Structures are given as structure tokens and as C-alpha cells.
Amino acid sequence: MLKMSEDCLFLNVFAPSNATELPVFVWIHGGGYNAGSASAFDPSALMKAGNNGFVSVIVQYRLGPYGFLSSEEVKDAGGLNAGIQDIQLTLQWVQMYIGMFGGDPGRVTIAGESAGAGAVMILATAYGGGLGPTLFENSITASPFLPQTFHFNEQVILEQYWTFAKSAGCSRLDSLRCLQAASTESLAFATAAVASKSLSGTFSFKPVVDGDLVPQRLSKTLDGPLNGKRVLTGNNANEGFAFTPQNITTLDAFTAYLRTYFPRLTADNITAITSVYTTPADVLDSDVAPKFATSGVFSPTALNQSQVSTGHQQVANNFYAEVTFACPSYWLAGAYMRASDRAAFQYQFSVTPALHGFDTLFYFPARERPVDAGVSRAFMDAYAGFVAEGVPDDWPQKTAAEPLMRNLNATGGRRIGAGPFTMFEGADVAQGDVDADVWEGGRRMRCDFLRSLADELVI
Known about the structure:
By secondary structure, the protein is α/β, with parallel strands linked by helices. 37% of the residues lie in helices and 15% in strands.
């Protein structure tokens, strides 16, 4: 039997021997705010790459309904976005106690991947930027996850709450008190009941707009004051494959996908999206063309070609990837780039297959998961340099005049695996700086377009 418990507020601290006033790296795991574990991440190799020049803290926070159940009742009890509050409490703990482990509370970098990066993005804009640099100085967001984000009292959130409460055996009278007293088994059953109503590739419990910690949706808060001073942010080349139905072979199927997964889009919105995201029909009718990774610079681009799909399937994969991971990275970099006394560094991880989450194998390498040492070292050097100095090794700073990002890739090696999961063992690192604006057929333009639809996309 799977054991579950709300007793999960803990952190793991890794410190070099004789550490004294070292920078601090705080890692927040991903998992869609519904899964994941701090115990899966050992920063020893990353710390070694940085010459043991920093202290690491790996955070566990409440997930699923324990961390992200929302309603008027939960708000009145002060429990909205409890999982994010857990992370904030960790950062406050770091400020008070990390000196006992040889860390410097004035030089904290918070970092995460997927939902962990989404949490970092929330903290970067929390309380309308009112935190400043008090809890952290730098932030790293790897594939920052930006799901549809509703206000805590919107109908879709309230329906989810009452489905959960009813499934746990709680009536409308004192529902929250009943849930707090319910058994773990009852709550697990209720969690499954809510999940059964969710669309494939989506997650049930997520952060909500609470008017305080999350004052507005991220597409709006990124226009305002920011917490921290510097950001290092990036995405993977093939983020959308794991989250998009893999049966989209026609334009009609793509528009049906948009209507189902983004129901607030109007007919005019969908027409505009298909105009921006599709290319001539003779290229797009099916997912049968040879599949190969794009260069990012020359045609074909990620609009209709990748290692995992082509045609309208790739259109859908890329649309989801951009609206949920890649464009949030662009928007975050842009916010820090434009703000005074702030700095942004951006990258794309393109090492095949470059699926969502694949990058973590390179900066949290383990012996049972061998990866290419050269690429891994380049990635770890960048992360370690950013933690220690606020600059990711020799990567360029992104500016309005030079919107550069680092494309981290590999060349050569021995083919292992097949299909979309093909990898090349023993490959050499191949990295270079590219224009982020024109990358993959003009990604910056598409991100600007998606942000103009933020209300309809609920981001």
C-alpha cells in the first residue's frame, strides 16, 4: 500500500566540511505540484563541479490537495497555496539558520525544474515584488511550469473543492474541519476522484490567485516589481511531447484540442492561433515525415518538425510547450532584462531527446543514469558559477540590444535507444550563443502573441 502523509515538511542540507559563509543553493523539485520528492535529488556532483564552494538545501513541500486545495473555506483558514507557503517558510529558515551549516544567508539562489521552477517564478513576483532581495538574491528556473491559473473562488476551483470534499465523505457543513480530520485513505480516494475528472496531461491541484502571495496571474505580475536580482532561465527543446495527446494529425484535430484544453478561447482566438502556428497543409497533414531535431536557426523549425513528431502533432506539441514552459521562460527573462539593477541569462537545452525533465540528468547526474560527461560538466559549471558569482560561467547576459541565449547541445557519440527516446552516449558538448528572438522561426514573436491571449489562456 502506498503510504501518504501530510507530515512532509522537511529539508536536506548538504554542506562541505569546514564551510564558512558560502553561497546557498536551494532546490525545489518538480512534479506538477502533485508529485515528486526531495529525496530524488543529490547535489553532490553539482557541488563538486563548483569546487564545493556552496551549501545546498533540498526542499520538500506539501503536494496535491495537501498543498493546493483551494476554496473560500481554505482562504479563511489561511491555507491557500500552502505548498508555496512551505517553500517560503524554508527560505525564512535558511535566513535564520543556514549560518550554522556554513552558509551565507545574504547569497541565496533558489532553483527548480518544472513545477519547482514555477514555484520559483511565483516567488520572484510574490506579494507584488515586496520581498525584494530579502529571501534570495538569484533564481534558476528550468522549464518553468505555468499551468492555467484560476482565482481561488472561480467556479472551476470551487467545483474541484466540493468534488474532493464529497468524495472524502464531507458535507457542506464544516467541510474543511471534516477534511482536516479525515483519514489518509479517505483523502487519497478523494484525490483520485478529482484526478479522474482531469484531462490527460494535466494536473489537478495547482497554485491559485489568492490576492496576496499570488496577487495576480503571472502574465500580469511579471510586469511589476520583482524579488531577487538575477535570473537564469531556460527550456528544453521538446517539452510538449509528454503532455499532449499524440493523436493530432489534422487541422481539425488541432483546433478540437485547443477548444478542449483551453475552453475560454474564442473562435477568433483559435483562428489567430492556427494562423501563427501552422504552415502550408501539404507539410502538415500527417505525422509520417522523417523525424529529426531542428537546428533552431534554419528551416524546418519547431513549428512542424522535431525528433518526436511532425505535422499537426508537432504543431500541438510545440504550442503546449511554448504556452506552458518556453514562453514563461522568455517572459521571466524579459522581466529581469528590462528591470533596473536586474540581470537575465537564458538558455535552451537541446541534447536529444530533450524531453521535459531530461535536463535534470545532466546537473543532478547519478552513476546509475550515465550521461555525457562533457555536456553535464558544461551545465553544472553554469549552475555552479551562477550560484557562486551570479554569472553562469561564460554564458552571455541577455539584453534588449543583444537578446542572446545559450543553446546547449551535443555532437557525435554512439546511438542508444530508438524513436523519440534516441540518445547519443559519449557525445561531445556543442554549445553556442543564438538570438533568442528569432530562434525556432521567431519564438519571441509567438510568445508575445500568446501573452496577448493571457486572459483566454488563463495564464
